[in-house]
Amino acid sequence: MLFPVLIILIFLFLLINLLFYISIKKTFSKNIIQSYETKISIIAAAKNEEENIANLIDALDKQDYDRNLFEVIIVDDSSTDKTYEFTCREITDKTNFKIIKADSKLFSGKKGTLTIGIGKTQNDFIMITDADCTPQKDWVKIYSGIFSEGFDFVFGVAPFIKENSFINYLSCFENIRTSIITFSAAILGFPYSAAARNFGFKKSSFEKIRGYSNTLETLSGDDDLLIREAVKNKMKIGLATEKGSFVYSKTKNNFKDYLKQKARHTQTSLHYLSKHKLFLALWHLLNLFFLFSPILIFVDTIFLSLFIVKILTDMIVVFNLQKYFEYNFSPLRIFYLQITYELFLILNFFNALIGKTDWKK
After folding, report:
1. Which pTM was predicted?
2. Claim to verify: residue 17 and residue 59 sit in the same structural domain
3. Are residues 122 and 222 in the same domain?
4. Domain contains 53
5. 156 lies in the same domain as 45
6. I need a labelling partner for 165 at 20 to 30 A (CA). Which of 8, 125, 300, 324 fits?
7. Where are the alpha helices (DSSP H) in the chain?
8. pLDDT in tens, 147-174
9. Exposed e or buried b for every residue in 174-207, given b needs 16+ CB within 10 A?
10. Which of 199, 225, 251, 205 has its CA nearest to residue 43?
């Protein structure tokens, strides 16, 4: 009885990975229609970003798009540094840029800040990013093309900039694994998550789901929980997959900040739709069972085969798909990071249950 059950589990594991592999390869190989016609408003929330905001302003100013067709609104959320004053100086000669202060927020955290910015927009298409990010020059142009196809919400690829540290390697690898499953699920008609660093929507669609008012279970979730509401309202969700639309950012520098960030993200996942939570729970439990299967070799040596199948499959999938998310890990690094990543899934889950969160970005 044991052997057939394990064969079924292996088949299921391989089938899901094959679906991931095919969906990413097929979708990311397509060219997205680019457009120069849509009027777009870009919102960036900023809190103590004096050291980073110049890079964002420069990246947005260099967009390959008619500056008469897009505006940039930076919303300062009670920064205690010189973010507001510095930004005012940086945008003096940029007529389509402005900065406002997040006074009298309706909601706490970043959602309240973004709501103020969205309320000040002049256009019906909104793009969101963070103050410490670097959008590529075709970002607006590619989103314009996707919006022109009638999508209500759109999200794109948000890679981390690679640096030489363990926290950076782990964060980048998590980004690959999360992106593979997030984009695959959306491609297969099962969208559940996104990254606010590279996100957009039709303003009228945002208003139809009552903005962030139904996403207040956590401080974070200005992306994932909006996707949840869009799915509940059967809205059309598109993907920006061309490299010209990527939005880059840095990872956390230390273990403490990393754990806080992961706690926020994991807490948000506890408020996904039931079908999405069930899917993710079963997927991660299947992976963890395969990972820890060698513990059961005293029962039967066949359990070792689960671990071997998992590691080889993970290495093949990540090694061949990482290029679509702008990474280039060696097979050896993929091997140890895959194991580390899954162990940290457990740590981050329990940390999310007991940890407190606040909003910085």
Report:
1. 0.93
2. no
3. yes
4. yes
5. yes
6. 324
7. 2-28, 53-61, 83-90, 109-119, 139-147, 166-187, 203-208, 224-232, 255-269, 274-292, 303-321, 331-354
8. 999 999 999 999 999 999 999 999 999 9
9. bbbbbbbbbbbbbbeeebbbbbbbbbbbbbebbe
10. 199
